[in-house]
Amino acid sequence: MTLEVILLLLAGFFGGVLNSLAGGGSFITFPALIFVGVPPVMANATNTFASFAGYLSGAFAFRHELKAHKKELVVILLTSFLGGGLGAWLLLLAPEAVFQQAIPWLLLFATVLFIWGAKINQLVSQLSGKHKYASQLGAVLLFLVLLSICIYGGFFNAGLGIIALSYLALAGHSNINAMNGIKLVISSSVSLIAIVLFIYHDAIAWFEGSAVLIGTLFGGYMSAHISKRISQQHMRTFVILMSCAITLYFFVTA
To answer: For the whole prediction, is pTM greater than 0.85?
Structure first.
């Protein structure tokens, strides 16, 4: 048990560092939870719980940038709660065996988003610049896009931030600080409602999740010191290699 706790603390630490510097911490924390014996569906729910504190503290850090988007945030919050709840509900309905078969495909999707997320955001920004969604139909389509993103986030947390940034680019945002703040509001809201459902259905491994959570808090705090020694590009390369290896592993084992 001691070795498992150490593993989870280390996974949480490095996951917290990666989430702060380059993103992709779930590629470490989620497999670590499965490795110590947490069932896949419960591991996914527990990973959402362990990541929540980092999302919330990050959103608080961008509170000044968010003040200019108060009206928009009301819609985003309501949509995030709705979509996150639906996604978590679908996860709880999914049979363990079915979700286990879906894990490699979900990880592959998140890996592709992580690798090409910046290019996708650039493409979406160009499209949003050419086609402004001023009509009611456009507003409905944007709502459905956001709702779909939040459903995905409630079902499988990895890659949520990258997809959220793509949505914000499509919606016409260009201020990266405001976009990061809104992204974290989406992630926090989706995770919060999902965690409420997971608690109600007793789907969180509290001991293992708490160990990961403690690790992420230390990792997030230490990231400021680590960032002075290791470039974000090197961290990003490490995450890409790690995510590809883990995705391949799950394809083989599944």
So the answer is: no
